[in-house]
Amino acid sequence: MDTESFATHLLSIASAYQTSDIHILPEQKHYDVYFRLNGQMEKQYYLTREEGTQLISYFKFLSHMDVGERRRPQSGSTTFALKEKSVDCRFSTISNYHSQESLVIRLLKQKETGNQQPASFFSKEWKQLESLIESKSGLLLFSGPVDSGKTTTMYHLVRNRMKGEKQQVITVEDPVEIEETSFLQVQVNEKAGITYEHLLKSSLRHHPDVLIVGEIRDEETAKMVVRGALTGHLIVGSIHAKNAKGVLSRMMELGVSLTLLEQTLIGIAFQNLLPIYCPLCEANCQTYCTNHPRDRKRAALYEVKANESLSELFERLRQQESMTTPPMKREFNRLLEKVYTYGYVTEKTYKRYLIPNE
Fold first, then answer.
1. Residue 290's CB: how many other CB atoms inside 10 A?
2. Residues near 20 by Cβ (< 8 Å), separated by ≥ 6?
3. pLDDT 10s digit of each residue in the chain, 358 long?
4. How far apart are the first and last CA of the chain?
């Protein structure tokens, strides 16, 4: 199979499997191709060094990178036309000390399959989120590491809110990760001068019922979402923090006062996707095991702070709690311990996802 045909085949298979990333990695004398499926790296193809180099060069050419440059890390993007659909891809290259390039392809704009509720370990936190999303205005923040399902959660909750009535939902993202025809989706383009700040201002003038902000990562965006929540909009956004408590510290670090947060914040959710234990595999459920469906081999563990628990979080922050303060109810680590005790996850998973110094 020639390089172009194999590249099309590779992306077609990856898209069908709903792969989040493709890793093309150099070994001593060859290349291995891995798919990241359900958070786990799984080897799919063996390529000779020549085949691997040609494949990486082909993707670099498509994504407008410098094909001749192999020492300096590069990044690029392109839309790849497959038979059934087009797939938006982001590419990143980096070389090892032997000057062998590796390539990671991130697949974007995967369409949601159906309207199935994301798998979760406990219903209490999910019901809290369903209640919070019905609010007329306020700021609802989600946090969690990369590939923890934040976008999927936000989209599903907002889509459910729209059932039976037409609402204006605008998303501001960089990049758009999931196609949703019922939302007005706009994408940041720094090169064209279309920044988060510019899009947020324009979106608020559009008077949305719900505004989804892909990521709050700078001071201007943080202040903008707070301003939007104060003017009567429901803002749903994500921000990187270690846990639910860390979201408040992160927002304050970005210049939002504790007083403003108390006025606008209606809830915080920290989440992570945990691989589910399978008695047939006697380990995490493997990709090709039929005991759990392919899209249900991981489940979300949510920590939600709202109402009384959110007020307690504000109070603790105001008093600058000491390390000896007893943990709050239903914190992530306590829920994780509960999941492990029930036998839903392995001991290895429990230790891996435990948050240190929570």
1. 8
2. 36, 37, 106, 107, 147
3. 789 999 999 999 998 888 889 999 999 899 999 999 888 889 999 999 999 999 999 999 999 999 998 889 999 888 888 887 788 889 999 999 888 999 999 988 665 555 678 889 999 999 999 999 999 999 999 999 988 889 999 999 999 999 888 899 999 988 888 888 889 999 888 778 788 888 998 898 888 999 999 899 899 999 999 999 999 999 999 999 999 889 999 999 999 999 999 999 999 999 999 999 999 999 998 888 888 887 788 999 999 999 999 998 888 888 775 545 666 778 999 999 999 999 999 999 999 999 987 6
4. 51
